[in-house]
Amino acid sequence: MSAAVQAGAPPRRTVRPRRGAVLGARRLEAALYVLPAAVLFGVFIAEPIAANLFSSMVEPHGRVGFANYAVALADPVFATAIRNSLLWVAVSLACEIAIGFALALLIELYLPRGRAVFRTLLFLPMVITPSVIALVFNTFYASDYGLLYGAFRAVGLADMFPSLLGAPATASLAIIAVNVWQWSGFFVLMYCVGLAAIDRELLDAAAIDGARGWRRVRHILWPLCGGTTISLVVLGTIQALQQFPLIYLMTEGGPADSSQTLATYIFQTGFVEGQMHYASAIAVVLFLLALALVAIEYRLAGGGFSLSGKGAGRG
Amino acid sequence: MAEPGLQRLALAILIAATAVSLIPTIYMIDISFRTANDSFAPVLIAAHPTIANYVVVLHSGHLARFFFNSVGVAAGSVAVTLFCATTLSFAIARLKIRFSRAILLLVLSALLLPLASLLIPITVLLRTLSLTNSWIGLIGPNAALGIPFATVIIKEAMTAVPDELEEAATLDGAASLTVLWRIVVPLIRPALIVVAIWEFLFSWNEFFLALVIMTHNATKTLPLAPLYYQGPYMTDPGKLFAILTLIAVVPMAVYALVQRWFVSGLMAGGVKG
Fold first, then answer.
1. How far apart are CA B180 and CA B174, in angstroms?
2. Which parts of chain A register pLDDT below 50?
3. Which residues, numbered 155 to 184 in chain A, qualify as contacts with chain B under a Cβ-Cβ cut-off of 8 Å?
4. pLDDT more than 70, % of chain A
5. ipTM for the whole complex
6. How many CB atoms lie within 10 A of CB A90?
7. Whether residue A108 is found in the same domain as residue A170
8. Reported pTM
């Protein structure tokens, strides 16, 4: 409509005063396009972040200060939660990237046909509701009637069957394994997309230069998927930090708080124990931990967060 | 392409990996077809399958109500996310507004927010606004959290639309809204489909917010059903697993139907994240 006004105004003299008005109209118009997202962002993201920050500073007797953070520092469960959250990020990412990249290589480079079948089937766990998955794996891990117990019994090791979810040493890892099972297919798919985007001529040139087998993977394909890797690392970090339903429905953070993460501990302190201000302080820590981890990962990768598929993936 | 020996080895590894990945799903479906006598057997596939569990669970409880709520919340979340992310991307990529880099950076930074860190303030806010136990109470946060990822993908696709097409239409006197709807949206359809599928899966499966916001049985969504039925069917896993299978079948069916577009949309956009 602004352009229509311009097009319908032949005399040159009138252009200058009008351009100001047109620009103003364009700005207003652009603002209208930004408005819906901005409102949602303001109400459901910016306001909550600010409210959370304020809430975390409210002390038991209504004073303002850092008492909630001081309590957290002395709280052994909080320490466990931090440790477990870091364990979640490290183990999930290591497994998902290794499995995802390896299977994607096999699919994209060694399969003459049927690629889509494997990509689709491997992705399937990813779409299943996590609360459903939690209950399926509760039965899977169960002593005496679970499928894993059945496997142990079949090879004559029934007596040695471990109660994975019931032991503090293994509870977190047993749930992380479920998370890896669910998300690996996503990593496979993303690496397939990344590998498919690599220039074939580049690979041919590398082959002529003698880059084959493991050397080709290590020095050509892995670096060329760098953009995919850093994106997946960031995404996987946030995903691991916010995982809730699996832990809540499989161990409720137990036994004896041993599988508590920051996400479940926020729920535990805020909604079960009703200490909203303390939970807010933990939420702020989680928020800062996510930022710190991503900053470190970004630094380690030497920048190059690529969502365009053309950035670090090629250059 | 690699030599035949390596191809066969790769195929064998992939079949093994896929089998392992499918076992829990097969296990879930099989338990849902078991008789009460078989339901505690530690095997992958039990003998004597029956559909009795489905007959019982489909005739009882709130399952239909939960399903209805899930459809409403997911449809609303997808619609709002698509609308907001498309208009925002248009302003950034095509109208080239001022501060567009800053806005994009702000949006990107929201990708780094773990939902758990916003759970309490969002709940407090929704209680203040009397939006707990309402679809809007879930659609709002779902969309707000979905917009960053959606904007990244849609903005990327819009940047790839040739300027000439838009300029031609603008010279013909088309309003920006017409340009967006008639020219840009049809061209970026693959990206919109990727976003719609992603947002559908996210909002359909979302548990954490629903748990604290949907406290009435009449407003609960399907991800809360496992928690709801866990107690009553503790001694009858066949029926519990029939419910679990029914919940899981919806996103699996949707994905089976649309995965072709999802994958080709990802490949076409060269989206990596």
1. 10
2. 1-17, 306-315
3. 181, 184
4. 89
5. 0.91
6. 14
7. yes
8. 0.89
Question: Are residues A44 and B145, on separate chains, in Cβ contact within 8 Å?
Answer: yes
**Cβ burial B43-65 (10 Å sphere, 16+ → b, else e):** beebeeeeeebbeebeeebbbee
User: Is the minimum CB–CB distance between B37 and chain A shorter than 8 Å?
Assistant: no
Verify that A288 and A185 share a domain, yes or no.
yes
| A310 within some domain | no
Q: Do residues A28 and A81 share a domain?
A: no
Which of A7, A30, A140 comes nearest B27 by C-beta? A140
For chain B, which domains are there? 4-50 (no CATH), 62-234+252-269 (1.10.3720.10)
CA proximity to B72, closest of B155, B30, B24, B134 = B134
Residues A77, A36 share a domain: no
State the DSSP code for A309. Answer: S
| Gap between the Cα atoms of B256 and A119, Å rounded | 12
Q: Tell me, what's the pLDDT at A19?
A: 56
| Best B25, B117, B125, B153 residue to mutate vs chain A (most A CBs within 10 Å) | B117
Say if A307 falls within a structural domain: no
Higher per-residue pLDDT: B2 or B166: B166
Do residues A262 and A241 touch, judged by C-beta distance below 8 A?
A: yes
Contacts of A304 in chain B (CB under 8 A): none
Distance between alpha carbon B38 and the CA centroid of its chain, in Å? 34
Residue B48 has pLDDT above 70, yes or no: yes
Domain harbouring A188, CATH code: 1.10.3720.10
- Binary contact (B269, A242; C-beta < 8 A): no
What end-to-end distance do the CA atoms of chain B give, in Å? 28
Give the range of the structural domain holding residue A212, as residue numbers without chain letter.
67-300
Whether B106 has a pLDDT exceeding 60, the answer reads yes
Residues A223 and A174 in one domain: yes
Closest-approach residue (CA) in chain A for B258: A120
Residue A315 lies in a domain: no
Of A103, A127, A267, the CB nearest to B252: A127
Does B156 contact A291 at a Cβ distance shorter than 8 Å? Answer: no
Q: Does A197 touch chain B (CB under 8 A)?
A: yes
For residues A131 and A213, state if they share a domain.
yes
The SS3 of residue A58 is strand
Instruction: Show contacts of B178-184: CB within 8 Å, 24+ apart.
Output: B179/B94, B180/B86, B180/B87, B180/B90, B180/B94, B184/B90, B184/B94, B184/B158
DSSP letter string, B109-128 = HGGG--GGGTHHHHHHHHHH
Domain count, chain A: 2
3-state SS class at A64: strand
* The amino acid at B131: L
Same-domain check for residues A202 and A118: yes
A312 lies in some domain: no
Q: Which residues contact B96 (CB under 8 A, 6 or more apart)?
A: none
Does residue A86 sit in the same domain as residue A49?
Answer: no
**Which of residues 254 through 313 in chain A touch B, CB cutoff 8 A?**
262-263, 266-267, 270-271, 276, 279-280, 283-284, 286-287, 290-291, 294, 306-310, 313
